[in-house]
Design a protein that fits this description.
This protein is an alpha/beta fold. Helix content is 23%, strand content 27%. The chain has a single domain (2-211), classed as Spore Coat Polysaccharide Biosynthesis Protein SpsA, Chain A, CATH 3.90.550.10.
Length: 213
């Protein structure tokens, strides 16, 4: 699943007229880059959630045939559901097995994670070293386990794997996945790994301009 419904407030005014997932770097939209990478790594079906200016995404991406994929859409309309609510709404499209989730607004050359969830694990998070534009990290990783505290801290990359059961007790609506991750980390239910290759959060017009130079 690619999370592409958000308003992209931090990227305004660029996102006043386009969804953040269609912002281009060197002539290629972020969403197109993700789709091509997933197809290259053998993914066949991708769910994309739609919110702000979502019709532009369906017009540009269509069925996904151009990318060698089957792209299906989870419509949120004007009621954008945030990360947790968006994933929960799309669960019927995602099936019974663990699934990969990618934030649309990252620029990376990360390959498809080769991760098997432990029997008791609900999720796996890919983290990256803290970049200069962040004052602190999100999680620590201790012996392959995600922790809320520790040293060093890492930034959550926006790439994760979940069991559908992680969302079993959720109710439909707008909510963030972060508090759920915090609680699951405290319960030792999340594994984690570090990616040290190319990764940037395309979160502001300044970062977008930097990546286009």
């Amino acid at each position: 699943m690619i999370l592409a419904a958000g308003r992209g407030e931090r990227l305004r005014p660029v996102t006043d007229s386009m969804p953040k997932s269609l912002v281009e770097i060197n002539g290629q939209a972020l969403l197109e880059r993700h789709l091509r990478s997933l197809a290259k790594d053998g993914v066949e079906t991708v769910v994309v959630n739609l919110g702000w200016l979502g019709e532009q995404i369906t017009e540009r991406i269509g069925s996904g045939e151009e990318f060698g994929l089957n792209v299906v859409y989870s419509q949120e309309g004007d009621n954008i559901l945030e990360t947790g609510g968006g994933i929960h709404r799309a669960l019927p499209m995602l099936g019974a097995d663990p699934f990969l989730v990618i934030n649309a607004d990252i620029y990376t050359d990360m390959p498809l994670p080769d991760v098997q969830l432990g029997d008791d694990d609900m999720a796996h998070l890919i983290c990256v070293p803290v970049t200069e534009d962040k004052s602190s990290g999100d999680f620590a990783i201790v012996d392959g386990r995600i922790r809320n505290d520790g040293e060093p801290m890492f930034t959550f990359s926006g790439v994760s794997i979940y069991r559908p059961e992680f969302f079993a007790d959720c109710t439909p609506g707008r909510f963030s996945v972060v508090p759920m991750l915090r609680a699951a980390a405290d319960a030792d239910k999340i594994s984690g790994s570090i990616y040290s290759g190319l990764w940037r959060d395309v979160g502001t017009p300044e970062r977008l301009a930097e990546l286009n130079t």
